[in-house]
Amino acid sequence: MQALESMTVLLPWLLVYYLSALTPGDASTCVLQNDFEPGLMANGDFLIGGIFPLHYNQEMPDLNCTYRPGPVKCNGFDPRAFRWALTMKLAVEEINKRNDLLPNYNLGYKIFDSCAYPLTGQRSAVAVLNGPNEQESPMCAGAGPLLAIIGESGSAQSIVVSRILRPFGIPMISYFSSCACLSDRREFPTFFRVIPSDAYQVKAIAKLLLHFNWTWVGVVRGDHEYGRFALQGLLKELEGTGICVAYQEMIPLLYEHQRALEIIRVMSHSTARVVVVFSAEGELTPFLRDYMEQNVTGIQWIASEAWVTASVFTGSEYYPFLGGTIGFGIRQGQIPGLREYLTTVNPESYPSNPLVHELWGALYDCSPSSSSLNNHLPSCTGQETIRVQHSAYFNTSSPRISYNVYKGVYAIAHSLHNLLHCTPGKGPFSNSTCANIHNVYPWQLQQYLQEVSFTISGETVNFDMKGDSIPSYDLINWQRGSAGNIEFVNVGRFDGAQESGQELVIQEKAIMWPGHQTEVLVSVCSNSCTPGFRKAVRRGQPLCCFDCVPCDSGKISNKTDSVECMACSEDYWSNDDGTVCIPKVVEFLSHDAMGLTLTVIAVVGACLTLAVFAVFLYYRNTPVVRINNSELSFFILLSLTLCFLCALVFIGEPTSWSCMLRHTAFSITFSLCISCILGKTLVVLAAFTATRPGNNIMKWLGPTQQRIIIFCCTLVQVVICTTWLTVSPPFPYRNTKYQQSKIILDCSVGSDLAFWCVLGYIGVLACVCFFLAFLARKLPGNFNEAKYITFSMLIFCAVWLAFVPAYVSSPGKFTTAVEIFAILASSFGLLLCLFTPKIYIILLKPEKNTKQHLMGKDK
């Protein structure tokens, strides 16, 4: 291909050198080496060239260089392309008849056949440069009669022709070349087109894929610049859209059956059910025949504008395989009188034109009697029925490419009209001059062509700085016609002049999908991830292939196909589905089942203590009450009542006051209780020790001293608590770290040191009391209270030693519940151990409630 491009650039200069080398003595004499006559020609004041693919393949001559090669032979007459050529002829004749456009001037034309092949298109370009007839002597001075060219159809051919025309500054208006590469003004400065660039077509296709959520597609293209640049443009347009290309296949320029089967095998086995095809109908026709032979169905075809309206595919045999095809076609327009004009073309009107005779053979499958061509066909009588496959020749109800040819001719005519009616002193050239109307150069016409703007059939025609026209497409859907054939139905439009997001308009209810379905076919590599899941890309596969992974706890995704899960804020947590952040459950020891149970136990304990207090108060004069200092017993009962009641402060939502009260209240009440028990223990120990001769210890443990001991021991705890509340008091704390799905409302101790000092001090009092009671456990007497104090302290210490690890390890409201349990258990232990034996004697064994019995002197 690089060699071909180089050859096209050098060819004009090689021709000049070759012609001069033939006759060194006479440069004005030229020898024509080969004849390449135009298919249609007419003289005029200004000449327009036309290049059309009147045949769709060619037969290359033998190039063994042992004899003079023959001319290239073109095969496969294309009636549709001939209609394009006739449209150019019609437009020129219309313009020549008008009085408001180019008055007093006539346009001429010279139309050549490119055989849909770049090399033949190159030959046509050289031929069209040589004046009205190749056999005329070449001009050596002044402007040539050729001002512009209408052509070419394929982008590959247009690239070749445009490079040949570039040195001569001759503008070319293409009616069917859409390759985005032709917008490069540095490489193709004289190229214009009335068909949108593929840069817009790929945008339209990308928006179409996004609209129907086709994220997994295949691409098939032809082996030429059109296919290559269209694929590159589509891949660039799909970047960042979430659409992936499952495969890229290329139909070879020289068609190979085996290669076609490989492509079809890839298409049929791929999970991509949508295939975008950038190809011309020439190479696509044999490919589709092989495709139908393999009986592959269920594929949604996305056709490029190069073949979406190709009449060759309208036969009924194509519908089961291509029905439902959708693609963007060239905008249709109206050409007045085109159908009537086509009917005037017949062998009688053009007896010496071989193209008309070939047309007759293609339309009626016969050969005109006056024709020497197609002798293998029967002679025509004029009553033959038109062949179905070429009925589109007369189908001019919605012309598209023909309309582009029509616009291209009128663009040249309007530009030339503006050039000829230039106001002196206001021209576009140096010193504001105008062109010489008797000697117009092509580059001067290009200046006006760049700025031309006119209206035709209600459409404004102009060109941007790249030579491109306004991008506008019709969205075409292939639907079944009444005769079983394929009809091209307009179901939408893409208008590149609209604002972003409003370019594509689709009438979805009017679309018929493959298999005569009414629902859109699904083409995805992986099904969408529902809310609550995120996409996890599979290693080594495109982004469209992924697994759906549920969001982690505390994270959500509230839309389809989320790439990441969003973390909930600190006070919120994800629901079970992972779709919504909901407020975290606030947990604290409330008045639920557990809280009510602890409340009842605490109230029952306080009531029992008060009941004991009432019994002791009623029997305050009995020996059992008096023998062990009734005042201390009442102090102990009152402090135990407070111990039971302080447990209630721990139940309910923590507040600043409750947090400060709960720890200080229980620590002070327990300190008071243990201090009273310590005082009682000292009294018991002193009472039995005082019986020894010379021991007067009891005078140091009178009621006043006992009160001082209780007050001092309790005061120490009060000082510790006061310091604690002053320096770093307890406060409500929202714990979101321990259990992420919940907010644990608890009381932070503020100062850990102060908290453990409080507990430690209570522990010290209990240990001292336990040690003293242990020493007095074996003293004589039927009612030695030291034994009960020892046992009560043993229970007390065991409860609080078990509390420490439970407090540290218990989560949430259970931490508070453990602390309440320790308070209640130790309180019940003290109440039962200290007062149950006395209540038993007072209420059930009153006969033992005597001084003699209690002192062990009852015989």
From TrEMBL:
<keyword id="KW-0675">Receptor</keyword>
<keyword id="KW-0297">G-protein coupled receptor</keyword>
<dbReference type="InterPro" id="IPR000068">
    <property type="entry name" value="GPCR_3_Ca_sens_rcpt-rel"/>
</dbReference>
<dbReference type="InterPro" id="IPR004073">
    <property type="entry name" value="GPCR_3_vmron_rcpt_2"/>
</dbReference>
<keyword id="KW-0812">Transmembrane</keyword>
<feature type="transmembrane region" description="Helical">
    <location>
        <begin position="631"/>
        <end position="652"/>
    </location>
</feature>
<dbReference type="InterPro" id="IPR011500">
    <property type="entry name" value="GPCR_3_9-Cys_dom"/>
</dbReference>
<protein>
    <recommendedName>
        <fullName>G-protein coupled receptors family 3 profile domain-containing protein</fullName>
    </recommendedName>
</protein>
<keyword id="KW-0807">Transducer</keyword>
<dbReference type="InterPro" id="IPR017979">
    <property type="entry name" value="GPCR_3_CS"/>
</dbReference>
<dbReference type="InterPro" id="IPR028082">
    <property type="entry name" value="Peripla_BP_I"/>
</dbReference>
<feature type="transmembrane region" description="Helical">
    <location>
        <begin position="708"/>
        <end position="727"/>
    </location>
</feature>
<keyword id="KW-0732">Signal</keyword>
<dbReference type="Pfam" id="PF00003">
    <property type="entry name" value="7tm_3"/>
</dbReference>
<keyword id="KW-1003">Cell membrane</keyword>
<feature type="transmembrane region" description="Helical">
    <location>
        <begin position="593"/>
        <end position="619"/>
    </location>
</feature>
<dbReference type="GO" id="GO:0004930">
    <property type="term" value="F:G protein-coupled receptor activity"/>
</dbReference>
<dbReference type="Pfam" id="PF01094">
    <property type="entry name" value="ANF_receptor"/>
</dbReference>
<dbReference type="InterPro" id="IPR000337">
    <property type="entry name" value="GPCR_3"/>
</dbReference>
<dbReference type="InterPro" id="IPR017978">
    <property type="entry name" value="GPCR_3_C"/>
</dbReference>
<keyword id="KW-1133">Transmembrane helix</keyword>
<keyword id="KW-0325">Glycoprotein</keyword>
<feature type="transmembrane region" description="Helical">
    <location>
        <begin position="664"/>
        <end position="688"/>
    </location>
</feature>
<dbReference type="InterPro" id="IPR001828">
    <property type="entry name" value="ANF_lig-bd_rcpt"/>
</dbReference>
<dbReference type="GO" id="GO:0005886">
    <property type="term" value="C:plasma membrane"/>
</dbReference>
<dbReference type="Pfam" id="PF07562">
    <property type="entry name" value="NCD3G"/>
</dbReference>
<feature type="transmembrane region" description="Helical">
    <location>
        <begin position="788"/>
        <end position="808"/>
    </location>
</feature>
<comment type="similarity">
    <text>Belongs to the G-protein coupled receptor 3 family.</text>
</comment>
<keyword id="KW-0472">Membrane</keyword>
<feature type="signal peptide">
    <location>
        <begin position="1"/>
        <end position="27"/>
    </location>
</feature>
<feature type="transmembrane region" description="Helical">
    <location>
        <begin position="820"/>
        <end position="843"/>
    </location>
</feature>
<feature type="domain" description="G-protein coupled receptors family 3 profile">
    <location>
        <begin position="594"/>
        <end position="858"/>
    </location>
</feature>
<feature type="transmembrane region" description="Helical">
    <location>
        <begin position="753"/>
        <end position="776"/>
    </location>
</feature>
<dbReference type="InterPro" id="IPR038550">
    <property type="entry name" value="GPCR_3_9-Cys_sf"/>
</dbReference>
